[in-house]
Amino acid sequence: MNDTPIFLETERLILRKMTQLDYKDLCKILQDEEVMYAYEGAFSDEEVKNWLDRQMQRYQDDGFGLCAVILKENGKFIGQCGLTMQDIPNKRVVEVGYLFQKKYWHNGYATEAAKACKEYAFNVLNVKEVFSIIRDTNIASQNVAKRNGMTYISTFTKHYRGIDMPHYVFSVKCESIRNYMNREKIIKYINEKYHNLQEYPWEDKPTYTTFKHENNKKWFALIMDVPFEKLKIKKQGMVDIINLKNIPEIIGSLRKQSGILPAYHMNKEHWITVLLDGSVNEEKIYELIDVSYELTKGK
């Protein structure tokens, strides 16, 4: 039992600073060939020790580092996630890093922990931009970064274990978090009210998430991020949207309202697209979600 004080807490997880007592649990991650494929193989005992010592030194020097991630339901050490100082070309940055035991993959734990670390960086440390630096072959970690609101900005090469390893740099700025938080509030509303199945069905679109009824498997909401230009809006950049079903007879009047558009890539007679950029107030979006849920639930 490790009684180290809690550093961060989420719905399902506790993040705390690691101690030497975590060595054996850390070995389950750092000495797993499959988990460590992006590092070109498992660590030796000495490399694990050095990794743990480095985190403890970071706690002293920076006040933060990679933390143990504990699953609340059973108290198990399932991974590590946290903030570290890292170097990219011409810049030293705050990075969100994460690495989990294989048996706990595909449960959303990495994304949940990474989001908490990002918010800590913005809200407590007053960092203006947070990064994740990920090997080009590590698609799973890239998808976590995207779900954490980050976008790709550059590539550089690290030389490690005698190999040149291209790495992608992802980042999110504090001022760009508004749209992302709108998305998170909508997801929270749907999950808490309806307890429906949320899925990320497309590997090549890791930020696209759907919500469907458990009984008939029909979607009632689809959240995406798309370029403004795809919506025929004369702006640069990306915007989060939600597609929702509505009554055909009133869709025309809804489209006259700011922030409500013809459905993107769906049947425009029965569906609408709603911008999640603040142009439609939350209560209106919740009302539209409720209508879509009722229209798609079946008998």
CATH superfamily of the largest domain: Gcn5-related N-acetyltransferase (GNAT)
Low-confidence region ranges = none
The appropriate CATH architecture of the largest domain is 3-Layer(aba) Sandwich
**Counting H and I runs of at least 4 residues, what is the number of helices?**
7
Q: Globular, elongated, flat, extended or rod-shaped: what is the shape? A: elongated
Order of helix and strand elements from N to C terminus: EEHHEEEHEHEEHEEEEHEEH
How many strands, which pairing sense, and closed or not: the largest β-sheet?
6 strands, antiparallel
Radius of gyration: 21 Å
Structure class: alpha+beta
The largest sheet has its strands arranged as 9-10-11-12-14-13
In terms of DSSP E residues, the strand content is 25-35%
Overall mean pLDDT? 91
| CATH fold call of the largest domain | Aminopeptidase
Total beta-strand segments: 14
Q: What distance lies between the first and last C-alpha atoms, to the nearest angstrom?
A: 50 Å
Would you state the CATH class of the largest domain? Alpha Beta
Bin the helical content. Answer: 25-40%
* Total domain units: 2
